[in-house]
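Morning run. Coffee first, then this:
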Amino acid sequence: MKDVNRFLSLGTYAIVGVSRDPKKFGQVMFRDLRKKGMDVVPVNPAAETIDGVKCYNSVSDLPSDIRGLIFMTPKEETLTVAKEAIAHGIKDLWIQQGAESKETIAALEKEDVNLIHHQCIMMFWKADGIHSFHRFLKKIFGGLPA
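And here it is:
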């Protein structure tokens, strides 16, 4: 939980791979995190704004105050984007399920980063409803980070 708590205390975040489609999970998650008070911006090279918020074309374009990066990218793109983030000075990385691969995790575990994976940020950032219940179940069955 130390790594999760560190990530949640950063203050400013970006989500890479936020969909332009308001029905896709990436945009639903983006809107929900913002609604719950997270200071988060979207990254999508095919959009100027998402849900009324300026969208950045790439991680390299993010302002320097962005401290944490949440990945909603296709798993084939995650490692490349993560390396771009590290080069840009972002070393707190949260890879959502579906955006991770064994190869990506193995490569990033060799880097000097705070890496969180196999966890959904929705269970940790002011979790409510189904996300709170999911977190409760993970706690009971030993799926939460130590």
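The first helix runs from residue 2 to 8. Good start to the day.
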